Amino acid sequence: MGDSKGSLLNFPLLKSIGDLSVFKDNGEYGILGAVVVGILIPVLLSALFMGKKRVKVRGVPVEVGGEAGYTIRNARKTELVEVPWDGATTVAALFQQSCKRYSRNQFLGTRKLISKEFVTSKDGRKFEKLHFGDYEWQTYGEVFHRVCNFASGIVKLGHDVDSHAAIFSDTRAEWLITLQGCFRQNITVVTIYASLGEDALIHSLNETQVSTLICDSKQLKKLYAISSRLTSIQNIIYFEDDGEVKDTASGNLSKWTVASFSEVEKLGKESPIDPNLPSKHGIAVIMYTSGSTGLPKGVMITHGNIVATTAAVMTVIPNLGSKDVYLGYLPLAHVFELAAESVLSAAGCAIGYGSALTLTDTSNKVKKGTKGDASALQPTILTAVPAILDRVRDGVLKKVEEKGGLAKNLFDTCIQSPTSFCQRKLIRFVLCGGAPLSGESQQFINICMGAPIGQGYGLTETFAGAAFSEWDDNTVGRVGPPLPCCYIKLVSWEEGGYMTLDKPMPRGEIVVGGFSVTSGYYKNEEKTNELFKVDEKGMHWFYTGDIGQFHHDGCLEIIDRKKDIVKLQHGEYISLGKVEAALSSSNYLDNIMVYADPFHNYCVALIVPSHQVLEGWAQQAGIEYKNFAELCGKAETVSEVQQSLSKVAKAAKLDKFEVPAKIKLLPDAWTPESGLVTAALKIKREQLKVKFKDELQKLYECSI
C-alpha cells in the first residue's frame, strides 16, 4: 500500500481529515469555528437528547449437539439460513439468477490503461508509473454472456471437466468471469495467490492435479521456469495484458496447449455447449489457506458453503443493492474478497477493480496528476484488512500531531465521540476482516468515515462465515453475533485457563457449526479429522483454535489463540498475539513479531520500523546515518523504539514479562511476496522464525 503510513490519506473519504481541511491555517477563530460547527454541536445535542440506550440482544443461547459448550445463534433467525431465495442452492444458479434480475445494471468495471512510464529516483532506482483513464463498465447481462462463452470454450479447448482448473492471477474482472464459467461446467477451481512462491505453487498445482491453469500473462515466464516440475498441466489460458508478447510466451510453453482468454471466449461463442450445472454438495473451490502457521492446506469449499455465507451476510448489510459501488482490490484467492464479491454480485452491486499499488492518488504506481482507483470510482462499500486501517489511523494522527495546538486538543477530544465530522461522506459501509481490528482503530475510522464498520470473523474453513458485527453496533473490539448461517460454540480449554463457566463472560475455544462449515482439507485426512467434527444430528463443526468470549448481548470477542500461547520458564503464560496487538499502536512500528523461548523468563521481538517515523525522529535527534539499515542498527535508535514500546505496554497494562526485553530492528518490509506475511498481512510466524533464526538466537545469547 506504499512505503509510508500516510500514503493512504488521499482516499476520498479520508481526504478531508488527512489534509485537515477542517483545520485550515486561517487563525484560531477559523479552526475553532470549524470544529464547533462540525463536531462539538452535534456531540452536545447527542449527549442531551439520546439518553441511556437499552442494550440490544444480538445473539441468544441455543441447545445444539456435539461437544458440550456454550452456544449462541443469531437473535434474528430461529433457524439457520441456507439460501438467499428459493432455487439458489449453488453458486452457478445464484449467479445466473442475479444476472437475469439485474441484466441492464452496471456490473464489472475496469480502468483503461492510457500509458506507462518509468521514473528514476535520486538513488538511481526505477519505478513504473501508470496513467489510467475512467472506469469502463460491463452490465450483468454482458458478463453472463461472457461467462457462458468461457464455459463452453474451456471444454472445447480440451479441458476434462472431471479434472481441476486453477486461477493464478491478480484480482480483475476476468478472474470472476473464469470462476463462474468453470462453475457452469461443474469444474472445481483451485485458487492460488499471484504472489505465491515457486515451491508453494508447484505443491498446490501438483497436489490438486490441475490440468488447466488460467493466469496473468506476466506469470507465463514463472511457469516456463518450473514447467519440468509440474506433473498434470495440459492447458494454459492467459489473460492478455498490455505490453505482453503472445508469440514469445507461447513458444516458451510449447509442451502445453496455450490460448489467450479472448481466444477461449471466441471458441465458446462459436461452438456453444450445454451447461453441466453442479449440486450444492459439490466442491466449488479448493482454496489454499494463507499458511500463517505452516504449509498451506487446501480447503474444500462446497457450493452450499458459498451460498450460505452469501445469504447470511446479505441480511446484515443494510439496504444493499444496485445503487452500491464496490472497490475490489484485495486478492480474490483470499476467502474474504471472494466472499465479499459473492455477496455484492448476488445483490446487484457494481464492482470496480483496482489494485493495492494504484488505490489512491499517491499510490506507488500512480502517475502524478492521475486519479487513484478510489478517487476515480468513488465507492460506497469498501473492504479493508486491519493492517490497512491501522496505517490510515497512524497517518491521520501524524498529520494532527504536526498541526498541534488547539487543533490537536479539539481533535483529541472529539475523536472520542460517536458523531461523525467527515461531511464529505462517500463510503456508507466498510467490511473489515482477515485479522483482529484494534478497538482504537475501529473507533477512529468509524468516526472519521461516518460509516459503520462491519467487522467480520471467519476462516477459509468456514468460507468467511462465522460472526459479523451489525451496522447499528457502535461498540469496538468485538466481531458481532454469529451470522444467521451458523452457530458459534465456546468449548472449555482447561490448559489455557479459558472456561465456559468463567465470570463475567463464558470463555473458550471457538467452534463454528452450520452451513458455512466446509468439507475439510484436500488429501489431508489426518488434519481434517482433527479439526472437523460431525455431531449426532449431522451438523458439521470446525475447531478454530481461536479463543473467544461472549458478551451479554450475544456478541463475540476474540481474545487469544491457542497456538500463540507460550509457557515461560517460571510458569507464566504469554499470549504472543495479544502482546503484538498491544504494541502495534506504537508509531514506530510497521510490523512486529514477538517471540518467547520457554527456557527463558522473558520475551523478545523482531520489529520492522516505520521508515517515515523513524527517519523523522533521527532528523530531530541529529542522528547521522548512511542508509536505513544503518539507522536501524544504531544503539540510540533501538533504545528510542524500546522506550516507545514500554510506554505503550504500560498504557495497555501488560505484565513485565509480556514486554519484550530485547528487540531487533529489521530495515526491510515484510510483504506477501517475501512469504513473511499472508495476503491479509498477518505475520507468518513459522516462516519468520526460520528466516530470522540467527537474530532470535542472538537476542537470547546475552543476559539482560
Automatic annotation (TrEMBL):
UniProt key word rRNA processing: no
Keyword hit for Ribosomal protein: no
Domain of life from the UniProt record: Eukaryota
GO CC annotations on file: endoplasmic reticulum; membrane
Keywords, ordered alphabetically: Membrane, Transmembrane, Transmembrane helix
Domain AMP-dependent synthetase/ligase: 130-522
One Pfam family named in its UniProt record: AMP-binding
Single GO MF descriptor: long-chain fatty acid-CoA ligase activity
InterPro entries, A to Z: AMP-binding_CS (IPR020845), AMP-dep_synth/lig_dom (IPR000873), ANL_N_sf (IPR042099)
Residues passing through the membrane, by range: 29-49
Cited PANTHER family: LONG CHAIN ACYL-COA SYNTHETASE 8 (PTHR43272:SF92), LONG-CHAIN-FATTY-ACID--COA LIGASE (PTHR43272)
Name of the protein: Long chain acyl-CoA synthetase
Classification lineage: Eukaryota, Viridiplantae, Streptophyta, Embryophyta, Tracheophyta
